[in-house]
């Protein structure tokens, strides 16, 4: 919006405000743009704007390609309609064609050369017009545009304006010109819509084509009122609904109807309860145009039915979106029907799975997932080695991660899912090994047959579209499962950190005054044993001490006692450490805690830095995307500078089995009796249930509608390849892999995309996830490189830093879970509780009861996980679905719709009920119509007979 400014004998248009989504004003004293804020309009200005549209000129689809041409058309229409006299034509044109100065330009200054040019103008082209100035001003004819400083091409300043980045692509401008002149007795108003958007040079701050033009010139004394009218039309033009009306309007009445619809939604604030000087911050989320249209329709229905406040009623009747998982889980009833549909959805996106990876954000995702996978592989590999006597260890875990990650990302239906070893699989492996050890059964051969049976069972589930039952997994089950996995990550990270305090204890009893009493000595091996080990005769062992020392010096590998040995050398030569400070390592425990908590805190802070006010948007986005990598590098550097021997990440450097007596290929026959091959189908059923539930629940969480994935899902295809990988890993003696919930959620979070050209004041819009298959493939390749000693950096990463990453992954995956938000409501008074939508529609006591049921279920799962009964963990996940089914008896469908999701069968019953109601209405209407026909028929016959008689 530009306002007309007077400086002596000169006039120019100065930019005073602008709107992209919210209003920005030019600060009067600071000469800068204000902070974006919500436009607050007076109700009177909207009514005055309505009057201006009614009485002024409205030119729709005007053919104009330059500002002088458009001004000529506007003035000609005003003269033709009798709104201004012909004598004012040149004066109005002169004012409208004055130079436009934008905020990034300097204020106008008249040089002596400019003053000379204006005073030496030819008399034939100059008339004396009183336009509120003290002297005569040269007013040129419309045909002569020598004083028109507006070029049809954008200037260099416009092209270099950084504000252009904030404007969406294909945007069109609406220019509002407001000014006061004293040659008019009444306002000069014109609303123009061009037939084609045209770039009008310096009229706009940035080179954006103009489609709409609103002009308001009026007599002096009402400048504030004119300014409010200009703000009103500018606010209307950035409104989604009114802008549609402005584009599609056929006449003046359509524009007035659009203003009336806007007035229907306007909220009036009492002047005594609110200060108009306060600028309202832009909201984090604004209602969409579709939602407002539905509210308007409800409002119209309410007015038709004689109801008051239709919009409010519409808000009360608003229901959450139904529980829908898409067509991917439709039961086809055909052999491998779901698998075939998944393949058809996968094929068109194969190339884009790799082409979308050429982005700097992808580098951050690869590094982050690499660290998560390598840490997980080392952790679970070490635990597997302890549980299976190194039949499976860190090396097997590394190779399995590389193999499973590469195959699944290339051929799976949803490559954003990360495969990894999980806690339930680890527990099953431990129990299976103990069973084999106690019954003298070969562990690797039995495990191979369990893997083959489980693979066959997974393929049967794929062929029969068994993934259809995932539709019955609602938010209740999803949140319970994901919360459990998140709490496992958090607790394991804390346990490992606490364990470092036990391994490197703090010397609490240290007293500086008794520092002389602290010592650690290296004691030589027993001299008698030494003599025996060197085949000395028994007599030599009882000789004098001199002879014993001579024996030790001649035959013992232990160095002379006078030498000062290190701890490693003492153990190497068979010595023993004696003293109260031998196991004490100063500062390691506290330093490990600093690295652990510092990594977590810095990652959280840098992640939030993305939405802070410091630095440009791109810089903040870059820091937010690489927050985890930056935190790891910073605290690795701190650890390196301090030089303390903190526990480091140990990476295997040779490709060989952890256990020397096993090879890379497991043979299926020869070590166990024949009945083991058949009986292994029973434990395989438990593994299949575990794999199925873990894989599909993680897939449901990844494929949520909130993530806005565009390439579809592949539940059947994912399960197919997980089953195949189980068979392959069983033959190679590698761990079994399934979807890792927390790592997959973290992967999704690292690839989220936001709009770059967000309007000033508008929160960046979540656009979706960068869906590409290369992260897992790259991670697999990086893990292989790591094994082949090409990467040495992981060996310098302290383990406490990785524990901090684990803690962040667990805490970050809890964000956005409604269950966690409802738990926090227990600690909040009602007046301080957030304005959640479910709190508006469900009583608080019912919300607490629903949350309590979830807490009890989570506690039961946690107890089972920590005991020997953990082998039935997958069955208990199915138990969550049973509990959810029973909750239909405790809660109404209305409450469950807001707190959870309505089960599919309930939706079907509702649809059937709605159809029955409609059918009943139709039958009743048909009956009434037939009754009316029976009543009308005698009268028609009577009228016909009367006509015949006549």
TrEMBL record:
The reaction(s) annotated as catalysed by this protein in its Swiss-Prot or TrEMBL entry are:
2 hydrogencarbonate(out) + Na(+)(out) = 2 hydrogencarbonate(in) + Na(+)(in); 3 hydrogencarbonate(out) + Na(+)(out) = 3 hydrogencarbonate(in) + Na(+)(in)
Tell me where in this chain the Bicarbonate transporter-like transmembrane domain is found: 334-903
Taking every annotated instance into account, which residue ranges of this chain make up the domain Band 3 cytoplasmic? Answer: 1-276
Supply the alphabetized keyword list.
Cell membrane, Ion transport, Membrane, Sodium, Sodium transport, Transmembrane, Transmembrane helix, Transport
* Cited InterPro entries: Band3_cytoplasmic_dom, HCO3_transpt-like_TM_dom, HCO3_transpt_euk, Na/HCO3_transpt, PTrfase/Anion_transptr
Superkingdom:
Eukaryota
Start and end residues of each stretch annotated as Disordered: 907-931
Q: Where does the protein end up?
A: Basolateral cell membrane; Membrane
Q: What is this protein called?
A: Anion exchange protein
- The organism encoding this protein is Salmo trutta (Brown trout)
Report which gene this protein is encoded by. SLC4A5
């Amino acid at each position: 919006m530009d306002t007309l400014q007077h400086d002596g004998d000169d006039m120019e248009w100065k930019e005073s405000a602008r709107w992209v989504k919210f209003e920005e004003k030019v600060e009067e004293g600071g000469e800068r743009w204000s902070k974006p804020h919500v436009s607050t309009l007076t109700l009177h200005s909207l009514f005055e704007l309505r009057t201006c549209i009614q009485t002024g000129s409205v030119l729709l689809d005007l053919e104009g390609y330059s500002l002088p041409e458009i001004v000529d058309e506007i003035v000609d229409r005003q003269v033709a309609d009798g709104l201004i006299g012909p004598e004012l034509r040149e004066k109005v044109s002169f004012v409208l064609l004055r130079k436009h100065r934008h905020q990034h330009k300097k204020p106008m200054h008249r040089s002596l050369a400019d003053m000379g040019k204006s005073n030496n103008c030819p008399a034939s082209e100059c008339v004396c017009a009183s336009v509120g100035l003290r002297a005569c001003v040269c007013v040129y004819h419309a045909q002569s545009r020598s004083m028109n400083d507006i070029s049809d091409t954008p200037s260099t300043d416009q092209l270099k304006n950084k504000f252009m980045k904030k404007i969406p692509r294909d945007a069109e401008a609406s220019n509002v010109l407001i000014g006061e002149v004293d040659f008019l007795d009444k306002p000069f108003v014109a609303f123009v819509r061009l037939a084609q958007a045209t770039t009008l040079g310096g009229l706009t701050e940035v080179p954006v084509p103009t489609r709409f033009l609103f002009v308001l010139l009026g007599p002096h004394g009402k400048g504030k009122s004119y300014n409010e009218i200009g703000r009103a039309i500018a606010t209307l033009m950035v409104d989604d609904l009114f802008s549609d009306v402005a584009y599609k309007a056929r006449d003046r009445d359509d524009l007035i109807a659009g203003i009336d619809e806007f007035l229907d939604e306007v909220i009036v604030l009492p002047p005594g309860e609110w200060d108009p000087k306060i600028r309202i911050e832009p909201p984090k989320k604004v209602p969409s145009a579709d939602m407002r249209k539905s509210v308007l329709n409800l409002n119209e229905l309410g007015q038709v039915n004689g109801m008051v406040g239709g919009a409010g009623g519409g808000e009360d009747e608003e229901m959450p979106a139904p529980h829908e998982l898409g067509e991917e889980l439709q039961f086809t009833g055909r052999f491998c029907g779901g698998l075939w549909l998944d393949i058809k959805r996968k094929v068109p996106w194969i190339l884009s799975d790799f082409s979308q990876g050429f982005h700097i954000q992808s580098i951050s995702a690869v590094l982050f997932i690499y660290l998560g996978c390598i840490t997980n592989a080392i952790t679970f590999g070490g635990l597997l080695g302890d549980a299976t006597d190194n039949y499976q260890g860190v090396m097997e875990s590394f190779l399995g991660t590389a193999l499973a990650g590469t195959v699944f990302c290339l051929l799976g239906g949803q490559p954003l899912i990360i495969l990894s070893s999980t806690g339930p699989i680890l527990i099953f492996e431990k129990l299976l090994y103990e069973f084999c050890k106690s019954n003298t059964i070969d562990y690797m051969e039995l495990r191979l047959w369990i893997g083959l049976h489980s693979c066959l069972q997974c393929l049967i589930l794929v062929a029969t579209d068994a993934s259809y039952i995932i539709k019955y997994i609602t938010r209740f089950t999803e949140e319970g499962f994901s919360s459990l996995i998140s709490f496992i990550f958090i607790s394991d990270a804390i346990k490992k950190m606490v364990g470092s305090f036990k391994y490197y204890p703090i010397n609490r009893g240290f007293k500086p005054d008794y520092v002389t009493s602290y010592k650690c000595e290296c004691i030589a091996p027993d001299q008698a044993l030494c003599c025996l080990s060197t085949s000395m005769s028994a007599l030599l062992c009882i000789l004098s001490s001199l002879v014993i020392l001579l024996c030790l010096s001649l035959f013992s590998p232990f160095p002379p006692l006078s030498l000062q040995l290190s701890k490693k050398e003492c153990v190497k030569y068979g010595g023993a450490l004696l003293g109260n400070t031998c196991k004490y390592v100063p500062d390691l425990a506290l330093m490990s805690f600093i690295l652990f908590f510092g990594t977590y805190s810095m990652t959280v802070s840098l992640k939030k830095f993305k939405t802070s006010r410091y630095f440009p948007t791109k810089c903040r986005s870059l820091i937010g995307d690489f927050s985890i990598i930056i935190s790891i590098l910073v605290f690795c550097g701190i650890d390196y500078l301090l030089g303390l021997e903190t526990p480091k990440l140990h990476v295997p450097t040779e490709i060989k089995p952890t256990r020397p007596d096993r090879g890379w290929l497991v043979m299926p026959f020869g070590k166990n009796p024949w009945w083991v091959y058949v009986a292994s189908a029973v434990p395989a059923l438990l593994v299949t249930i575990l794999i199925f539930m873990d894989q599909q629940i993680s897939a449901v969480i990844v494929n949520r509608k909130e993530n806005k994935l565009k390439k579809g899902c592949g539940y059947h295809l994912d399960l197919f390849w997980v089953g195949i990988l189980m068979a392959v890993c069983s033959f190679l003696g590698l761990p079994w892999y399934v979807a890792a919930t927390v790592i997959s959620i973290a992967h999704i979070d690292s690839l989220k995309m936001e709009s770059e050209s967000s309007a000033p004041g508008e929160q960046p819009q979540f656009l979706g996830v960068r869906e590409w298959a290369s992260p897992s493939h790259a991670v697999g390749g990086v893990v292989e490189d790591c094994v082949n000693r090409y990467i040495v950096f992981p060996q310098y990463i302290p383990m406490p830093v990785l524990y901090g990453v684990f803690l962040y992954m667990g805490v970050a995956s809890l964000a956005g879970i409604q269950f966690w938000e409802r738990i926090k409501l227990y600690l909040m008074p009602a007046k301080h509780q957030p304005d959640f939508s479910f709190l508006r529609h469900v009583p608080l006591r019912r919300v607490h009861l629903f949350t309590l049921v979830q807490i009890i279920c989570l506690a039961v799962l946690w107890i089972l996980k920590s005991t020997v009964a953990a082998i039935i963990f997958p069955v208990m996940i199915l138990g969550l679905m049973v509990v959810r089914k029973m909750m239909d008896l405790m809660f109404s469908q209305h409450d469950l719709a807001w707190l959870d999701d309505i089960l599919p069968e309930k939706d079907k019953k509702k649809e059937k009920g709605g159809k029955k109601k409609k059918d009943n209405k139709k039958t009743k209407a048909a009956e009434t119509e037939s009754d009316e026909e029976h009543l009308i028929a005698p009268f028609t016959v009577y009228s016909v007979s009367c006509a015949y008689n006549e």
